[in-house]
Amino acid sequence: MSNQATNTASPMRAGLLSITYMPWIIAGVLLLILPFIFTNNSSITIMNQMWITVIFALAYNMLLGQGGMLSFGHAVYMGLGGFFCMHVMNYVEDFGVAFPLPLLPLFGGLFGMGFAMLIGSFSTTGAGTRFAMISLGVGELIAACSIIIVAFFGGEEGISGDRTYGLPFFGIEFLKQIEVYYLISFWLMVSAVLMYLFSRTPVGRMANAVRDNPERAAFLGYSARWVRFYSFAASGFFCGIAGGLFAINYEILTEENLNAASSGVILLVTFLGGVGFFFGPIIGAIAFTLLQTVLSLETELWAFYAGSLFLATVMFFPGGLAGLMMMHVPAMRFGKLGTLTMPYVKTLLPGLIAMFGAACLVEMTFHYRHAATGDNEMTLFWTTFDSHSIVPWIIVFAVTAVAIWITRKTAPALKEAWGEANTPPKGGV
Amino acid sequence: MELILVNLIDGLVTGLLLFMLSAGLTLIFSMMGVLNFAHASFYMLGAYFGYQISLALGFWVALLVAPVVVGVMGAGVERYGLRRVHQYGHVPELIFTFGLALLIEELVQFVWGKNQMPFDIPDVLNFTAFAIAGNSIPAYKIFMIFISIAIFIGLLYILTRTRVGMIIQAALSYPKTVEALGHNVPLIFMGVFGVGTALAGVAGVIAGPVLGTFPGMAFVLGSIVFVTIVIGGLGSLWGALVASLLIGWITTFAKAYNLAMSDVLNAIGIATPENLDDNIFRDLWTVTSPQIADILPYILMVLILIFRPYGLFGNRDA
Amino acid sequence: MRKSIKLGISAALALSVSSVAVMADIKVAFIDPLSGPFASTGTNGLHQFEFAADYLINQNGGVLGGQNIEIVAFDNKISPKESLIQLQVAIDQGIRFIAQGNSSGVANAITEAVEKHNKRNPDDRVLFLNYAAVDPALTNDKCNFWHFRFDANADIKMDALTDSIAADEGIKKVYIIGQDYSFGKAVSAAANRFLGEKRPDIEIVGDELHPIGKVKDFTPYSRKIVASGAQAVITGNWGADMLGLGKSIVENGYDGPIYTYYAAGSGITAAFGETGEGVIRLVSEGQINPPVSDAAADYYNAFKAKYPDGNVDQSRITNTIGMLAAAIDAAGTADDVVKIAYELEGMTYDSLWGGQVMMRENDHQAIQNVHIQAHTKEGITFAYDGSEYGVKAIKTIEMASADSESSCNMKRP
């Protein structure tokens, strides 16, 4: 899969070199204006959560995507960075030290890196299962310690602090969510640029080589082990920064920041977005945060849908959402993207309807089984109906079946159009 | 003294139960290179199917039928899911099983709800077999021991005495060569996956009544199964057995005796600090063995991976 | 983010309610786990809240002369981080009352966040109605003006429990076991303190903590308990840890009582079944069996008719809704939460489940009758979990710990 990813990416590079600043500028402008589009506090809270996850996922992908190392305990580095920052924050509050809050994540980063170097000193000797299992073991150990060692981790309640006691930064005291938002956005841009640049350094390049073929890399005179070690330490640094931002945003850290579930989630996020591309984890983090925070407001079964989506991604689009997008680049370069529009509409629209229809059936079954007695009414997609009568079932079932039938019927045409769009036009490029 | 004997029996039960899971997993792992994260989920499915079938047809039918159902589901997952993902490499395969574990937990909650199921020990076995110094040993535990040992002997027989077993063993060591010899390796994979998950199903049916049948049961068991096979050495049935028993006894004894860290440190000549409450290491001083019993296997695994990456009985690098 | 259209039960309820409503509803945000391992407790709690609001308030004309109380559910997945996000979403929707109860860790995160929010945003302050998190610290060192606890805290319940143990002359040896976190430690500390005061002759033969939610098999712990010769066991365990511990102790030869906090409802009563008969002794507020009055029986029957699989196992929820409505009526406003908080302080309320509830002024801890209840099938009017078992009150401590001390130093606006 990694090969496939690199192949698609490599022709891109030369073409994108001239506009290489554009994506960053667009991203920066977007970060600046988003709070003016989504103005209420809860969207800003959700965006804060999103950007923190983005940094964490990008840092995770330094290992998984770029270095081929699968970590099952990566929440530890983010969590420890966060806990350390929280202690610094409390120290500032207790002793009245003059310390500007925006610099706090740096401490988290250094602490995360320090711990990553400690663990990396013995875990990076191998990639593969060995690295994965050591990361799992260390993750479980730290998570268990967080309950036992109350002095540092605060037990199950965690430790909390107040961010407003730091030195006012140009008059900003970080009382409001929006002020925190811009702080997080600033660190997001800095971290993303640095991580991107890291992937362009010799170490970053060698990480790819070590991932694909450690033996050949070794023959070139590079120690696979040290290349892994540097990637691991750098990843730990950025995880720590994400942890520091978490501490500032939520003002509390708990065992949850360290445990296996959090480590699993970041793996899902990164893979969902696509490990083969630098921007993959960004998409993954945004999609997953929306699923978790917004979809869970709509339905209790959100985890079921998230799980299905995830499984479908692994099975059909191993390149993740980013891979799915980048599949269209060749067609775009041939100038044939337009020819795909109609076939897409013909197939994907019914496909989408079929998906929502299936979701409706699931929701109706759930409602039928779990709703209170006498409470037969349910609302789906702004329509209220009786889940205990047969008519809505027949309608939804029929719609879904027809939609599936149309999708299957039109799929070959799409495939054909896809093949056509990806054939270079006569006369060459 | 009597308590040691009782703990030995308890540890044996825990260890053998773990073995039923790790035996299937180590076969799957070593043959396909897949760390099947959903293995504990099949154990959970075993318990739930066992409960559902035992309501209608009784415990003994459930014990026979539920593992078969789970095994067929496992084979189906291999055939229609894993095989498809296989072409992308090991990491996506592993992530596939990871996602599957999440989905199975959600499905179980969807079908059976979120409460604990009243899955009980069958009446025939609901008595005290014997007592050692006031500690009763339930007959069900003896039954669990016999079932696990029977399964171990059965597996050993199939693997070493039958033709299928020979092919599987060969495929464990030289998968490419076996394929070159014309054996249908994908079919073997599917079969091994099915049998492995069916074993997890058996473990689920017999553990459900004692350890509880609830949606979190797979998560509680968690990654300890991987730890077992890594400690034992990949692909080694004996390794899985020894590691399971080791973990069973270590955790049981650590829980059964309140060994405090301060005692250990005092014994090796480090004195307890004067005012412990202000000491930053106060929590380390007061740690007791039951508190850390469940993380001891993880410590053991990390140490083994650092110093002996093949595991206790393995011959392939993890 | 657009205002969410709630699916399922809450949507149907909201619909049926809003069709009657003349004025805007008063919303209460229910932030508790609705998915994940603790979802059953959360979902059942949500049903009890919705039913209480509907049955007690909305069907009787609402508050402030016709406004209804609507419960809006938010799933926090029992994660402190998610809880804070959902808290923000709730505040943005203009909700002024936050109800939460599962996990003291989450309650701790919410009470701190609410205090900071109210300090930083004096224009849209909120109240935190804690209906089940019983860590004593929440009404002691960590108390604040915005937090109200409607359940009896762990110390109060332990006071009642140890009264019951102290009265039993036959008990000479007690074993204390709990989960390794703040609540488990609080239970252990309180048990040691009260037993030391009330019955210095009782020997505590074991006092230990086990990892929370991680123990697969409790057998080694039960062996120690049996071997210690304990005649009573005290535990603060809940959920699967309670069931696992209880079943394992009984299976391995222990036949004394197990004194505990959370061993009823959410499937636990059914799963204990016969094993728990004569063993489980539960301390809680609110008497279900025998019903204290016809009104209480009617309430329970109406709930049963609506949720056949549900239990009224958190009777304090009716008090929470009742007291909130009374405070809003007394304050004459549903927006000025400071005024409402002052009304709640010191309020005395006649509980549907017998006796009175008094919201103590100095620490916002509800003082109420606490009962020792037995898990049994004899004399049960309202059984739990669709089984034939339920809990029956066998001893009542009136206005338990009304004069207990609190280290709370309340700062009022």
TrEMBL record, chain B:
<feature type="transmembrane region" description="Helical">
    <location>
        <begin position="295"/>
        <end position="313"/>
    </location>
</feature>
<feature type="transmembrane region" description="Helical">
    <location>
        <begin position="181"/>
        <end position="207"/>
    </location>
</feature>
<dbReference type="GO" id="GO:0005886">
    <property type="term" value="C:plasma membrane"/>
</dbReference>
<comment type="similarity">
    <text>Belongs to the binding-protein-dependent transport system permease family. LivHM subfamily.</text>
</comment>
<feature type="transmembrane region" description="Helical">
    <location>
        <begin position="142"/>
        <end position="160"/>
    </location>
</feature>
<keyword id="KW-0813">Transport</keyword>
<keyword id="KW-1003">Cell membrane</keyword>
<feature type="transmembrane region" description="Helical">
    <location>
        <begin position="238"/>
        <end position="257"/>
    </location>
</feature>
<keyword id="KW-0029">Amino-acid transport</keyword>
<dbReference type="InterPro" id="IPR001851">
    <property type="entry name" value="ABC_transp_permease"/>
</dbReference>
<feature type="transmembrane region" description="Helical">
    <location>
        <begin position="213"/>
        <end position="231"/>
    </location>
</feature>
<feature type="transmembrane region" description="Helical">
    <location>
        <begin position="94"/>
        <end position="112"/>
    </location>
</feature>
<keyword id="KW-0812">Transmembrane</keyword>
<feature type="transmembrane region" description="Helical">
    <location>
        <begin position="49"/>
        <end position="73"/>
    </location>
</feature>
<keyword id="KW-0472">Membrane</keyword>
<feature type="transmembrane region" description="Helical">
    <location>
        <begin position="12"/>
        <end position="37"/>
    </location>
</feature>
<keyword id="KW-1133">Transmembrane helix</keyword>
<dbReference type="GO" id="GO:0022857">
    <property type="term" value="F:transmembrane transporter activity"/>
</dbReference>
<protein>
    <submittedName>
        <fullName>High-affinity branched-chain amino acid transport system permease protein LivH</fullName>
    </submittedName>
</protein>
<dbReference type="InterPro" id="IPR052157">
    <property type="entry name" value="BCAA_transport_permease"/>
</dbReference>
<dbReference type="Pfam" id="PF02653">
    <property type="entry name" value="BPD_transp_2"/>
</dbReference>
<dbReference type="GO" id="GO:0006865">
    <property type="term" value="P:amino acid transport"/>
</dbReference>
